[in-house]
Amino acid sequence: MAMSKIDELAERVERLLLRHEEVVRTNALLEQQLAQVTTERDSLKSRLNAARGRIDALLERLPADKSEATTDSGDAAR
């Protein structure tokens, strides 16, 4: 009877070791995926900031009175 308890315990330890190995592999894959997603996010943030800079530069080049003239002529046509 004592031997079956030892066998049962050994089997449970083996299952626990297998589960641990699976968790370690899963964790490694998740860390790799996180690194890829973080790199992608950083790249997208950089592209977004560059696009914002280009838009701001274009907006600064627009004449300030042009938007007022468009609004005034639009009101006069009505």
From TrEMBL:
UniProt keywords, alphabetically: Coiled coil
UniProt superkingdom: Bacteria
Protein name in the entry: DUF904 domain-containing protein
Coiled coil: 6-61
